[in-house]
């Protein structure tokens, strides 16, 4: 009988102290539809050749795929590909402006 209560107590403790997930599972595309409707020019498919795009002060996110990116990287002697997550809190996650400053200094 004592074994039953010990097992029951362990089950109750494990259920009440287990992890839970707070948030959505929408991932990379979490706000894509909202952004597309509220800021239609923010995310664009490059009209010209992707490799010919130049950096300017406008804030535009270009929607490309991995094959397009790989083709452009082949023609460049040095490249930096930065994967960014706005909710990353780990010490190795740096804001995009830091990555831009680093790459600007190294050019």
Essential attributes:
elongated, 107 residues, mainly alpha, 2 strands, 4 helices, 4% strand, 39% helix
Structural write-up:
By secondary structure, the protein is mostly helical. It has one domain (24-106). The chain is built from four helices and two strands, in the order H-H-E-E-H-H. The chain has helices at 2-16, 32-38, 66-74, 96-106; strands at residues 43-44, 61-62. The protein has a two-stranded parallel ribbon with strand order 1-2. The radius of gyration is 23 Å and the shape is elongated. The termini are far apart.
Task: Summarize, please.
With 107 residues, the chain is mainly alpha-helical.
What strand order characterises the main sheet?
Answer: 1-2
Q: In total, how many domains does the architecture comprise?
A: 1
Rounded mean pLDDT score? 76
Q: Percent range for helical residues? A: 25-40%
Main sheet specs: 2 strands, parallel
Anisotropy-based shape:
elongated
Based on secondary structure, the structural category is mainly alpha
Cα Rg = 23 Å
Element string (H = helix, E = strand): HHEEHH
Number of strands: 2
The proportion of strand residues reads under 5%
Could you give the topology of this structure?
Blueprint lengths: L1 H15 L15 H7 L4 E2 L16 E2 L3 H9 L21 H11 L1
């Amino acid at each position: 009988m004592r074994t039953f209560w010990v097992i029951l107590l362990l089950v109750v403790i494990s259920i009440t102290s287990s992890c839970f997930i707070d948030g959505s599972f929408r991932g990379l595309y979490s706000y894509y539809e909202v952004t597309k409707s509220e800021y239609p020019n923010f995310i664009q498919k490059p009209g010209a050749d992707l490799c010919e795009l130049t950096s300017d002060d406008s804030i535009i996110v270009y929607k490309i795929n991995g094959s397009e990116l790989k083709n452009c990287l082949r023609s460049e002697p040095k490249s930096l590909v930065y994967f960014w997550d706005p909710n990353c809190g780990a010490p190795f996650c740096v804001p995009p402006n830091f990555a831009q400053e680093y790459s600007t200094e190294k050019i």
